[in-house]
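Standup notes
- HV: blocked on the assembly model, inputs below
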Amino acid sequence: MEEYFSPGHTACAGCGMPIVVRHALNVLGKDIIVVNATSCLEIVSSAYPKNAWGVPYVHSLFENSAAIAAGVVASLRARGNDHTKVVVISGDGSTYDIGFGVLSGMLERNDDVLYICYDNEAYMNTGNQRSGSTPFGAATTTSPAGKVRHGKMQWKKPIAEIVAAHKIPYVATASIGYMADFENKVRKANDMKGARFILVLSPCVTGWNYDSAKTIELAKLAVDTGLWMLYEIEDGNFKLSHRPQQLKPVADYLKMQGRFKHLNEDEIKFIQEHVNKTWAEMK
Amino acid sequence: MVRKTVESSIAIAEAVKNCEPDVVACYPITPSTHIAETLAKFYADGELKSYITTESEFASISCICGASAAGGRAFSTTSSQGLALMHEVVYAAAGMRLPIAMVVGNRALSAPLNIWCDHQDSVAERDSGWIQLYCESAQEGVDTAIQAFKIAESTMLPAMTCIDGFYLTHTVEPIDVPTMEEVRRFLPKYEAKVKLDPENPLSIGEYALPDTYQSFREDVHKDNLAAKGKIVEVDKEFEQMFGRGHGGLAQGYGHEDADYIFIGMGSVIGNAKEAVDELRARGKKVGVVKIRSFRPFPEEEVRKLLEGKKHVAVFEKSYSLGSFAPVYADVINSLYPLRKRPVVSSFIGGLGGKDVPVKSIHEIFKMIRKREPLKVWF
């Protein structure tokens, strides 16, 4: 099989993001144009004159990839190309926060764009600062574990639900711990028209502070503990992709990572209760 | 060509439509809204290939950057806060060498909020690498909007047509609008030299390390300066085809034997010409120089037009707060190589729509009869 994201990029050992990109591109094939927000992905794949991309690639700014993509697809269609797919690959900083308004505009117009957000739960490109995606309790450099405040004191922004509220044809969550599920979702989304959104959990070795051999294990554990839910919302219909038989304790996941090491038993219990409540509502 | 008595924004929108852009993306803002609305109506009537209604000006310019990167001809329009909101993308568009075209309906910047004309919005983007052409009349606005595509696409630099808000966006007067067939003869079909294409995959917008970044920026600067020739050439071609040119980079009026010159840009030039006509009829040696291309700045042309004059009044509707007026600073720099330099005075006026009637120009000519250079907020 031809590869469209080549080795030689400079991502950290164990980084989840190149796994996301490589597998997504393998599914999407070569008749695509990739639009990338400023991010770790941009930095590790496109330092002039080096390049890791085997498909057309455009990067403009941090917060405008959804609008760039809207323009790319409008231009293709206006010039009679009705086959090339336009795919945004952006991180959580640009998706949840700084590019949120532009993303909402693209979703509202239902532009024919597949938007994949690789979610590593903080601004990792600038060295691990808190984003709207950072989970409750996680320490980052701007939500540090201090004497009074123990990491981020807010829950993660429910971005997939907010995206789904735009009533676009397809929204899905995924994790690189469940690769077949992620690839199936990319395949399904690629065959659809209009705005499509896939949120995929992508562990960050340096920001999350864990053993770089454990990336897939951790991405899987996020699902198995119930902290990360795999689902699809197709034409407004919610469908769980995977219901863990028995949720593993969240502590198993939290204790593998340095970003949660300051949490005390009460705080871990608080997170566990939150997860239990979320899943109880899913019954 | 069709001459109609029409609001200038509507004429500009029609001219843009006749350039057959692949993508138009707009967000409404006074005083450029009527251009956006008219283009939206063309789209609704099936006369435009696409029209993206964005949620902000930031998205509008981002959309047309994407459209241009994919090989399309792309257009937007905005004013004031809209252009300020676009700022980050304005720089990126030039650096990415995307030949997009934009009409700016010039308007003051907040605060205080003000919807009327001055040049602070586009002058604030002067260092971005864009070509900036300032128009004297509604007709020039229409013609320059067409020329801008040709200049941009042949230099791989974005081009901004600057028209004074309300004075040149909302006036109703007889305007010639070239038809689509005529525009086709002037403006060739756009074939991008570099574009996103799965058949020939390449990357646009890579990042550059310290060893290469500066050379990319220097290229934009050199190519912006080199665009001077193209601006003159395109205006000449336009004149040959349509019977009217607009002065290339910079143009004098009554300046040849004049001792006193009023130099500026935009619609104020019309009033200045009227004042000069009146004064010359009374035997006064006065003239006007219109700067049409602010970027690239026509240093040599300005120097040639002003050499040997006694006193030059640089009038402008913008300022670099805490420093000098931008056009004044460029004029001073242009004159510096001369051994014998004219006295140069700086006049700031017309900010936020403050009226600059013909009698104000008379007053300026009176004030520069002395030898001392002045700096006046007029």
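- HV (later): unblocked. The mean pLDDT of chain A is 97. The CA atoms of residues 91 and 161 of chain A lie 17 Å apart.
- Next: hand off to the docking folks.
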